[in-house]
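Loading example: each entry is read as four labelled lines plus one structure line.
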Amino acid sequence: MVDVAALAGVGLKTVSRVVNDEPGVSPELEARVRRAIEQLRYRRDANASMLRRLGGKTQTIGLVLEDVSNPFSSALHRAIEDAARDRGVLVFAGSCDEHPDRERELIGSFRERRVDGLIIVPASHDHGYLYDDQRTGTALVFLDRPAVHLDADSVVSDNRGGAIVATEHLLGHGHTRIGFLGDLLTISTAKERLAGYRQGLELARIAVDERLIRTDLHDADAALAAVGEMLSLPDPPTAVFAGQNLLTIGGVHALRNAGLQRRVALIGFDDLSLADMVDPAISVVAQDPQALGRSAAELLFRRLDGETGEAVHQVVPVTLIPRGSGEIVPTSPAVA
Amino acid sequence: MVDVAALAGVGLKTVSRVVNDEPGVSPELEARVRRAIEQLRYRRDANASMLRRLGGKTQTIGLVLEDVSNPFSSALHRAIEDAARDRGVLVFAGSCDEHPDRERELIGSFRERRVDGLIIVPASHDHGYLYDDQRTGTALVFLDRPAVHLDADSVVSDNRGGAIVATEHLLGHGHTRIGFLGDLLTISTAKERLAGYRQGLELARIAVDERLIRTDLHDADAALAAVGEMLSLPDPPTAVFAGQNLLTIGGVHALRNAGLQRRVALIGFDDLSLADMVDPAISVVAQDPQALGRSAAELLFRRLDGETGEAVHQVVPVTLIPRGSGEIVPTSPAVA
DNA sequence: CTGAAAGCGCTTACAG
DNA sequence: CTGAAAGCGCTTACAG
């Protein structure tokens, strides 16, 4: 910037004015400065610029995801990017693969770079460590899962409601023995979906059979094995509700292996690409990652704009999409 | 940092030494400084820190993708994130949706934040505007598509080779009328894949029928329509080679709509999740996004470590995965 | 082993 | 409308 000022034969402050589009620079000087900028290919250093501005914002936010490469996370990411772009804000993203340590590391790195806000799909189960950040003005929004031990905004899917709807849908088609496949119960969404499943059965006054509930399954293979075991019970399930993407895939595999994909009903939580091309097409409770991401970004920017009200907790609706697999009716054991 | 120094009763420089793990601080003073840091919850400002360091690195890189939410882009992203994490480097990511303007905007924002390097899946067709960045020390790697009008490292898939393999695979199963679905020809990968298709036919001395080549298709619907039209030709294709993910999906839809999914062969370029559960399972030429991303990051960091050799151009192999749809043999017109 | 002074690239608060 | 001085939070280059 000094070089530009020297070349243009003006003071430092005048260059600063031009670069920041501040008013009060004569057209003649402005032209000289712009010419010098062009000639020297000068680019203002945003980091230095923000250093001196009091309460300066870096115009960056940090995004903590489960895994930037999984379809749900990356859809959230895109929705947040779009909202951020409208504001000229750049986003740092990182994956923590359900490791609490990695969450803290990532946030530590974001903090060193002085991000203005954080949108967090949390892996840890105690967010008290963010209290200082919150107090000192970092905007915080929890996404997909609420904060624990911290009073902060959150945006989550209607996990329990969606699980109730899926369970009732299966019950409505005549199923009473419905297997449940759940992710790690340390993940709040998994817990909520299980609670919804139980609640759906209770509302219909169907006794819960604990042998049909398999939790802490974290990948497709675990789900495949779990369904295999359920199917060899003396009184096997006639339908399966898979509480998550990968578990749905494992469930479909298990049913196909057993040749039962047209006999045993299946509903998955969270949509899958190509779900409509599998035979039978896979019925799902679809989440709305665009809405989740957009809402989280909106809440974050509202906080950055000075909103100081109580923590907001938004719940985004989910939608049952019947495609075939969830509409299979139970076959009598004799026929099966 | 002044506050910490004051509380600990030491000089500024001593705090700086402790924070940066520099040697030569007595254990006693170090303990006092650490206590003060703890008490004041001090966090060093990485942006300010880097400002004074000469040739200071921000330990950030910028990643320009087609779309953070598409599976191919996000797999690249994850591979790059992992490599960056090993070095304590944070990544800014952004989507440009094939808009050259957006590519320049994004890179402009990254430049203002003084990223150390850029990994770019380019949307524009002239990268001369990056010459100054390159000269002033920004490391540059082009990913998935090479740079145009700029001599820079690149990592791309073996697009032409993969297309030849796919075409020869179909020829080997007796097909001579093979439809080609291609993305916008402004995208180099689309051009290469088309070239590979032509080359495969030529090697087998099969005349190319231009009516079987449809390019500039950018989404599933366009591919669906294109296949519909091909099928109503007097001499329709007995196989289809889809040059990209979404086009594969559109192609499958079109064949199913026509009830021909078991009659007309199909191979897609780039793998799809659930491809093995569709009936028939979808044969593909799979790319290796992990290897692409990892290699790009390695090249980038090698440049950042001072490597000044000629621009490197890596080609990552692709793999044909036969799953069923690509192994269908042509039915005689009479039977069809 | 320790710290006071100068400076990174910029903006603020001020005086003209 | 214009610019010289001071300062943002830190590190460098020095002197002790």
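The first strand of chain B starts at residue 60 and ends at 65.
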